[in-house]
Design a protein that fits this description.
By secondary structure, the protein is an alpha+beta fold. 41% of the residues lie in helices and 12% in strands. It has 8 helices and 7 strands, in the order αβββαβααβαββααα. The chain has helices spanning 15-33, 91-103, 116-122, 134-137, 156-166, 186-208, 218-229, 234-249, and strands at residues 43-47, 54-57, 73-76, 109-113, 144-146, 171-174, 178-183. Helix 2 (91-103) crosses helix 5, helix 3 (116-122) crosses helix 6 (186-208) and helix 6 packs across helix 8.
């Protein structure tokens, strides 16, 4: 597998933090490539501290095409003065990502977007990702569902509520809203989001035929989901390959 060598870090960051910045910046550019982005909304974050209290996140209202490794914010979930600073992040991002990083140990990387197909499925009365093919079966019994949307996540209480719903899962279908993915790395979170949107695209197309879905049995769906989990480091290879694609087209994300 080819490895993407990061550009030389500036004096402001050590090599470990610089690689995290490069990876997260790549995720923003890939979101644009896949048409997951929405104007200057939505947010990605990556924990830099072991307890998740410190994390990288996109600056307030900056388009994903302009985000790079250097201009990512480095925030502290325990810093109560964060929102009073001139470079404060978006309020909803702070309330959501800050609380999730603080409450969920598995939330090293958090990707929150409103992609077309996943949001369409999340907007149904029944937003379950039904196992109708190999890709959708990856998520069988592995998704949290939030059907309690009451408005934008502009309070710590809302962030805490969503953390409770997520629990020990890594994917949330946010009813009337979008999707939330957490992972142990940017590569893992990106891969889960990529295939989730593909699964939802297949579901939308299947629903659009008006014909009954051919849903897998519990045993087949569960076995397929476990096979995905045991498939090795495909997520790492997938992300590294996509960074190579970015490097050939526009390596500005690593600046």
């Amino acid at each position: 597998m080819n490895s993407v060598a990061p550009l030389k870090p500036t004096h402001r960051f050590d090599s470990s933090e610089w690689q995290m910045r490069v990876d997260l910046a790549a995720a923003f550019r890939l979101a644009v490539k896949h048409d997951w982005h929405e104007a200057v909304a939505n947010h990605f974050s990556l924990a830099t501290a072991n307890d998740g209290s410190k994390f990288l996140m996109n600056p307030k209202w900056m388009h994903f095409t302009r985000i790079n490794a250097t201009n990512l914010l480095h925030l502290d979930a325990n810093d109560e003065a964060t929102m009073n600073r001139p470079d404060a992040p978006d309020l909803t991002a702070w309330c959501l990502h800050g609380r999730l990083h603080k409450n969920l140990p598995q939330a090293r990387c958090i990707l929150h977007v409103h992609p077309k197909y996943a949001t369409a499925i999340a907007s149904l009365e029944d937003p379950e990702i039904k196992p109708i093919d190999q890709t959708s079966a990856r998520y069988y019994n592995r998704v949290a569902y939030d059907l309690g949307y009451t408005g934008m996540a502009s309070s710590d209480d809302e962030g805490d509520r969503l953390a409770r719903i997520m629990g020990n899962k890594s994917i949330m279908m946010m009813g009337n809203h979008g999707v939330l993915i957490v992972g142990r790395s940017v590569a893992e979170a990106y891969d889960k989001l990529y295939y989730l949107e593909r699964a939802c695209q297949t579901l939308v197309l299947a629903y659009s035929t008006g014909k009954p879905l051919h849903v897998m049995s519990h045993d087949v769906a569960e076995r397929t989901a476990r096979e995905w989990e045991d498939y090795g480091e495909q997520d790492v290879a997938h992300f590294e390959e996509m960074k190579l694609v970015l490097n050939a087209q526009d390596a500005g994300y690593a600046a």
